[in-house]
Specification:
Bound molecules: zinc ion
Number of strands: 2
Strand order of the largest sheet: 1-2
Radius of gyration: 17 Å
Shape: globular
Largest sheet: 2 strands, antiparallel
Structural class: mainly alpha
Oligomer: single chain
Order of helices and strands: HHHHEEHHH
Helix content: 55-70%
Number of helices: 7
Amino acid sequence: MKWINHSLIAGSLCAVVSPPLVAPCVLGATAPDWMEWVAKAMGIRVRHRHQTHIFTHWLCFALFATFLFDFNGILAAFAWGGVCHILTDAMTVTGVPFSPYSDRRFHLFGGRFRTGDPMEYAISGIVVMASILLIAILGTGGSYIPFFPDWATRYEVGLADAVEWKNNRFRFF
Ligand SMILES: [Zn+2]
């Protein structure tokens, strides 16, 4: 899948949850591809869509960043951006490795289209529109959000202390 679509899909989904985290999320959404260049620049041999595209690695990283260690949500946003990249690459014909132990490729929705196919623009268009709709319904981006109590704002206005915010920032209900 092309970077523009990786960025649009991860970025717009992230904007629904937390607009300030879109930048690290988009960086993460392109990471599995630019990590291949970094590895090559360091003289490590990598196959395209292989070592940097393992689904279970990105998922573990994202869960770790979400529940164990994080830096202001930035690490989690980066990691979930990466998961999003892997899942959308999994919709292409080539697919991605599911885990380091499986040689079979992992496909989502049958892995029907090739990178650059109009289908991937259609998918990202749908995700972007759904996100805009969700943002409109939830009112993300400032005011009260029914399903995502905004602990960061409550902390800023002094209603909750730091510990309360830290404990509740991922509690969505
Ligand atoms: Zn990729």
